[in-house]
Amino acid sequence: MSTLRPIGVFDSGVGGLTVLKALRRKLPGRDFLYFADTARVPYGRKPREMVQAFAAGITNFLLQHDVGGVVVACNTASAAALPQLAERAPVPVWGVIEPGVEAARRVTRSGRVGVIGTPGAIQSGAYQKRLEALGLQVWAQPCPLFVSIVEEGLSQSYEAELMARHYLAAHPAIDTLILGCTHYPMLAPVIQRVLGSGVTLVESAQVTAEVVGAALPASNGGMAGNIRHFVTGDLLAYQHTAQVIGGVDGEMEWLDVTRL
Ligand code: DGL
pLDDT digits over 31-45, tens only? Predict the structure, then answer.
């Protein structure tokens, strides 16, 4: 076990595991605490103030467990609760929206970029204003049912493809699509099939890991770090998805969200 403090990572559910996996690759010697609020997923349809309260409660929980930094591995919570979380926390707090914007900036050639996300993330305009400030043309589309499809383990299903066709039907000519929800990388094969090979899909996980990795020491020795998961909803369903994602194994425990 590392003597460095663990890094806290949270999401409404399994989506943030896509970010945790990239963080783990970047910082293999660090310990991580991952908080999956699956009892209250999805956040994307909930009022902004409610998401802010959830994010503050989870951040406090992680701080009580002595984390040395917090990664808000959820676009909806990043849009609703940053920078307030960062101002109040005594440790660095990172979100996933700016990394997603940076990933798109690196990839686009035409300057015509799409972003899909939860209703909360898209309605906040958090992506649109940052992308437009870079001079990019933006098409934004909320995809309300995608998070539930992923949480139900239906990412590769016929239903997922049907929903993707529905949400993406009106897309204009774009060369890059930001998966602006950390659940969506699990739908990437389906989304890619619907859009065709002319559109590059980008996500925030890799750039987030680069930003966090640049700010924190990787390890204090050659030892592999541990992951400890706190899950507020169904533990078995969560374990299954963590297995499908791979590379995020660790001790998992259920947590009563009413005690947060
Ligand atoms: N993974 C979260 C995000 O990135 C999903 C939010 C939700 O629960 O709706 O936005």
Answer: 999 999 999 999 999
Total domains in the chain come to 2
Do 126 and 172 belong to one domain?
yes
Distance 201 CA to ligand 1 centre (A): 18
Whether 74 is a known active-site residue: answer yes
| pTM exceeds 0.70, yes or no | yes
Distance CA 203, CA 189 (A): 13
Residues 56 and 112 in one domain: no
In a domain, 107, yes or no: yes
Predicted local distance difference test score (pLDDT) of residue 220: 64
Residue that terminates a domain, selected from 188, 204, 220: 204
Q: What is the DSSP string of 109-146?
A: SSSEEEEEE-HHHHHHTHHHHHHHHTT-EEEEEE-TTH
Do residues 102 and 192 both lie within one domain?
Answer: yes
Of 19, 74, 79, 136, which residue is the catalytic one?
74
Domain presence at residue 1: no
User: Would residue 180 count as lying in a domain?
Assistant: yes
Residue 58, pLDDT > 80, answer yes
Beta-strand runs (E) in 164-233: 176-179, 200-202, 227-231
Which residue's structure tokens are 């934004």? 140
Distance (Å, whole) CA 43 – CA 163: 19
Pocket-forming residues, ligand 1, beta carbon under 6 Å: 11-13, 15, 41-44, 74-76, 118, 121, 147, 181-183
Q: Give yes or no: 143 in active site.
A: no
